[in-house]
Amino acid sequence: MSDTATQTPTKLQLLELLAAIGTAQWREFAAAAAQHGLTSTQARVLAQLDGPVPMRGLATLLVCDASNVTGIVDRLEARGLVRREPAPADRRVKNVVATDAGREVIRRVREEMQAMHGALDTLDEAESATLYALLGRLRPSMEKGA
């Protein structure tokens, strides 16, 4: 065991490690998306669509102007990967919903991220459970701050 494994890491060390892993994950995600003819932003939209999401909500998630989302959704819709539908509570609001084809393509993008799968395969069951629990604790604070 190395000296660094026994020392408590600083917040800066943790941030740097999370940033390096996040950058590597994003790079691989973008490359896998490109294999399916998607930009990284288009794939990111598909990844956000667990259910109906308002266009304005997508803009917030993507940290961009709502007008940019229109073009992204237009291109995804033209490929049959998403559809727009009126929100039940307010028909002026348009929700974006992934189609079966859209859900399938984002599943394949994630499945093809072999470096991430390989890295996770190095963890045993207890380490995987611990990592999952720790990331689950961090997620609400990170999403609230976004």
Structure description:
This protein has 146 residues and is mainly alpha-helical. The longest helix has 25 residues.
Layout of strands and helices, then pairs:
Layout: H1 3-6, H2 11-35, H3 40-48, E1 53-54, H4 55-62, H5 66-78, E2 82-86, E3 94-98, H6 100-111, H7 114-121, H8 125-145
Antiparallel strand pairs: 1-3, 2-3
Helix pairs in contact: 2-3, 2-6, 4-5
Q: Give the averaged pLDDT, no decimals.
A: 91
Largest sheet: 3 strands, antiparallel
Give, in spatial order, the strands making up the sheet with the most strands. 1-3-2
Backbone shape:
globular
Distance between the termini: 36 Å
Low-confidence stretches: none
Give the helices and strands as they follow along the chain. HHHEHHEEHHH
Global Rg: 18 Å
* DSSP summary: helix tally: 8
Beta-strand fraction estimate: 5-15%
* Helicity, as a percent range: 55-70%
**SS-based class:** mainly alpha
Number of strands: 3
Labels describing this entry:
three-stranded antiparallel beta sheet, 8 helices, single chain, mainly alpha, 146 residues
Q: Summarize this, please?
A:
With 146 residues, the chain is mainly α.
